[in-house]
Amino acid sequence: MKDEVTAGVQFISRLVNRNDKLDKERLEQFGECLISILCERFTRHWYPEKPLKGQAYR
């Protein structure tokens, strides 16, 4: 789950900073916070053995 969430956060971070107006430190902090929030939220809705289960929640 962490790999998928990290990939999504990297995509969102690039969108947020597409004009290079945020410094690298703030962008990394944003990414770390977003990863922890999303991992916490999806913990009980992620089933690697049944990928379709819980996908409506995500």
Automatic annotation (TrEMBL):
Residues 1-58 form the Anti-proliferative protein domain. SUPFAM superfamilies: BTG domain-like. SMART domains: btg1 (SM00099). GO terms for cellular component: cytoplasm; nucleus. Belongs to the BTG family. This is Anti-proliferative protein domain-containing protein. It comes from Sphenodon punctatus (Tuatara).
